[in-house]
């Protein structure tokens, strides 16, 4: 459910009229609904009511500080994958003991920063990383609570490029190696192996892969306990999909929660969740103006002022996003390729999409763009990052303004040569 509806034929974000907002802030811009973000966290938390559970919002999905502040207010923590994301979570006021640190390539500097902050858990993805973390922790006389990210060898995810839990993927440690790794970790003084972690992919549209992964990690936890290890936490990652337009709807959070609760109840562990997309995706849309309607030799193009640099999902994963005119238009539907201004053929939001007749100057909304939209944006073609706006009732706040050209080039310079002897 989301809070983008029509009033008098015009799309609104909560009660903010998007035509008026486009005039106020310029296009393209992302607009998020505060109420939708909060609702999604609440639905998730309610589904796990009574269980010992930490919801660590996956910051990469949408890392805007204002979004993180909403997460904190709703009682969520953070799943971070870099020193930058860690700083964001802390700046947003999140308590370090609600922060988990994931990712295959944490640097020693990032480990040190997270140890100093006192985060809840490191999700360790290799033996080499274990050694590095142990050394960094020992150098600070600290002890890092860790979970190994187990690669359960389960196929899952909406696209090959967002599947992470197969043996050939770079993520996690081979489940067969877990026994030896936990034994090694237990003997190290800088780490405390308290948990097991997995994350098998993203935009997962059925429960079967979660079930397979849970079966495997349950076996691993039982085997580790038989070895005398004390395993008190299970991090089940994120990955639950969302409905994109008319695509098949993934399971509801409630059904997911029932499965996880049923499968994990016998384990008696604290649960950690890292949802990203299901919190943020439907809470945001990208609003763009039609620059031109171009009658090509073979097809009709709508050329928008938003491009693949603003929302790369269609170009990168052939992702489907519903696209709607902000003001309802009458007339027989036309078929358009909906593209951006960037100099790449893949700068295309939709191919052969039926829309009511649209004119230059009209506004369109690219739906379900709150997750992996702004956070994956770039300034390719020296296009300024789209503004980000939050709607709350009939109010809006610009939560990231569009940079000026001077800001975009401020870190570049033509001089300052330094010699290094070869
Ligand atoms: N935890 C870990 C360790 C992850 O790698 C991810 C996402 C999540 C949690 C959150 O997963 P979610 O609940 O959002 O599915 N850019 C792609 C998605 C990449 C997901 C990367 N990892 C897209 O736009 O579809």
Strand proportion: 25-35%
- Which structural class do you get from the secondary structure elements? alpha/beta
Poorly predicted parts:
none
Specify Rg, calculated over alpha carbons. Answer: 23 Å
- Mean pLDDT level: 95
Largest β-sheet summary: 9 strands, mixed
> What would the principal axes of the Cα set say about the shape?
globular
- Percent in helix: 25-40%
Number of helices: 12
- Which molecules are bound in this entry? ligand LLP
Amino-to-carboxy terminus distance: 60 Å
Number of strands: 21
Question: In a nutshell, what does this entry contain?
Answer:
With 422 residues, the chain is an alpha/beta fold. It is built from twelve helices and 21 strands.
Walk me through what this model shows.
This protein is α/β, with parallel strands linked by helices. It is about 30% helix and about 25% strand. The protein has 12 helices and 21 strands. The protein has helices at about 20-25, 35-45, 65-75, 85-90, 110-115, 125-140, 180-185, 210-225, 255-265, 275-280, 315, 405-410; strands at about 5, 10-15, 15, 30-35, 55-60, 75-80, 100, 120-125, 145-150, 175, 190-195, 235, 270-275, 285-295, 300-305, 325, 335-340, 350-355, 365, 385-390, 395-400. Strands 4, 14, 15, 16, 17, 18, 19, 20 and 21 form a 9-stranded mixed beta sheet that branches. An 8-stranded parallel beta barrel has the order 5-6-7-8-9-11-12-13, surrounded by 5 helices. A 3-stranded antiparallel beta sheet has the order 1-2-3. α9 links the parallel β12 and β13 (about 270-275). The longest helix is centred in the middle third of the chain and has 19 residues, at about 210-225. The structure holds ligand LLP.
